Amino acid sequence: MDVSEWEGRQAAHYDEIGAEYEVHYSDEWSQRYRRRFINERLVEGIELGGARVLDAMCGSGQLAEFLVSKGALVTGLDVSQDVIDRFTRKLPGSKGVARSIFASGFPDGHFDAVMVVGGLHHVHPAVDRAVDELHRIIRPGGHLCFAEPHVGSLADFARQQWYRFDPLFEDNEAGIDVPHLRSVNAERFDFIRTLYSGGPAYLLVYNSMVFRIPRRLKRVLSPPLLWLEGPIERVQGRRTSCMVVCQWRKKLDSEPS
Asked: Residue 16's pLDDT is what?
């Protein structure tokens, strides 16, 4: 299957589940999880006031809302026009672009930072190619920050089985291989932060749609699970975590891809 074919399938898939996705991932509890365990980690140490930031594979704008609150000038990019329509309705002051991550159309070095939450694992088997394009559009000294499910964990083994049977997932979705990405990008990026995270709250609060958690039950489960997530995270490593949060900086002497 070529890239354009499975990108089209992904777009159609998210057009179909977009309303339900919005209910689960934009509610109070998922947003609390995202802010504390994903968003704040992605941007730590980065000056966002007035910065040009791309929310790549943006969905309907859950991350972009946070970035705008920090003063960033945000552009959202997603292959689904329906998703971009939701993005622009939610964030009328931000630009939404319905285009492929493999042909973004942005000039070289256009952004101070690119942020991706849960997008790279949707572009297998072309993750390297997607990172090439993101590298191209980040200015030297700018940042690439991402949070993704990753390979090499117990959770990833379970995820591989789940993805095979659950209609919420397309067949090209898979965890990302961080050691591989670091190896092939060592000459282009400095690796500032790698944090393995994601426990019960990641599964049952943040990903309540995947586990079909009813909203009423989610309201009951969320407070204790969010409280437990911090202590659990302190003893997690690559093998026992569900996601990885990475912050990279493009080297000053790095050439466009």
From this structure: 61
